[in-house]
Each structure stands twice: as structure tokens, then as C-alpha cells.
Write the C-alpha cells for this entry.
Amino acid sequence: MAQHCLKCLKYTMCLANFLCFMCGVAVLGFGVYMMMTMRMDALTPTMAKFNFANMLLISGIAITCVSFLGFLGALKENRCLLLTFFLLLFLLMLVELSVACLLLVYEGEIGAWVTQDLDKGLEKAKGKIGNSTEEMTEWDMIQNKLDCCGVHNVTDWGVNVPESCCIGMCKTPKPDYRQKGCLVTLKELFEENFLTTGISVIVLCVIEVLGMCFAMTLFCHISRSGLGYKL
């Protein structure tokens, strides 16, 4: 009976890690696609270094590598791969929990830093307003998508207000500008999705804990029975 349960555990690990591997490949492919096709200016100086495409690439590589280790370790009953899979999952969970704690503890400082970073990004974007016929910048995309203008309001742009700040046509005697700043809109969007984000992090941590439990159970069984590859 115990042997059947362990076989079930082994193939469950293989299936779960194979599905995670395919998801990682999809995320990695989407990141490469975005990097090749979306050529936009960064919203902030920080986002120029850590843009969405790069984050997708890093996430895709991490998911594919970890899930491949788990799949191969369970399939081949390799103790070394299973232990490596366990340690990587443990490190990933520690990083996620550390980031979540830092966001909660330093919420005020992070908010001030985001505001400063947005101000710097907007100052950099002001010099490109004259090229309105060129491809859309990230500021244009954000302002159209979130129905906002500037960091605090339309006055942040000075005299060179982009077309994306206007409701309708800008080339009128009294154009109608979007009243709400993007900083306020982003804060409201974060607060609205705070519960969903928290639940997602908890679910992800639970999945990682289950993966570690499965890997360690299989590892201990292989060690006791003398099966599989040696460390």
C-alpha cells in the first residue's frame, strides 16, 4: 500500500512539474515576444532597468529551471536533483515572504520613492512630446489606459501637454484634460487589488510548501530503500 502511495506521489510530482514547466516556457516565450515587438520608452528610470519584458524573462527562466529539476528528480528518483529542487523552492519562498514583509514595513518610504521615480520619468518624457506622430510612449499608454494625466495632475506637463492627457481633441481653444493624476490612480488600483495579490502570494507559498513536502518525502523514501542515484 505504501509503495503504491509513493508511486502516486512520484507521478503526481512529475505531472505537476511538467505543467509548471510548460507555463514557464509560455511566460519565457511571451517575455521574448514583448522584448522583440514592444519598443517603448520607460515610464520611470527604474523601469528602464526592470521592465515588464525582462521580469517575464527572469520569471520564465526560474520557473522552467526549478520545475525541470523537480520533474527529472521525481522521474529518475535522483536524490541530488530532489534536494536541489527542495532548496530552490525554499529560497524562492523566502524571497517572496521577504519582499512582502518589506512592502508592509516600508510602505511610506516606498510610496515616496515611487513618487520621486515617476517625477523623474515624467521630466525625461517632456522632451519627447513634440514627436507625437511617432510610436506611443509608456506614459501615453498609461494615461489612456488608466484615464489619468501626469503624476499629480495635468500641470505636471507644463505647456507641452501630450494628446493622451486630453479627453477628445487637444487642438481646441479649451481642451478637456483628464483631472486625476496617475499616482493617485495607481494607488487606488493597488488598494483595490491588495486582497487578490495577498491571496495569490499565500496560494503560491502553499503550492511551494506542498512541492517541498512531496520532494522531501520522496527523497527520504529513496534514502531508506537505497534506490535511485547516490548524492
Summary: The chain has one domain: 2-131+138-225.
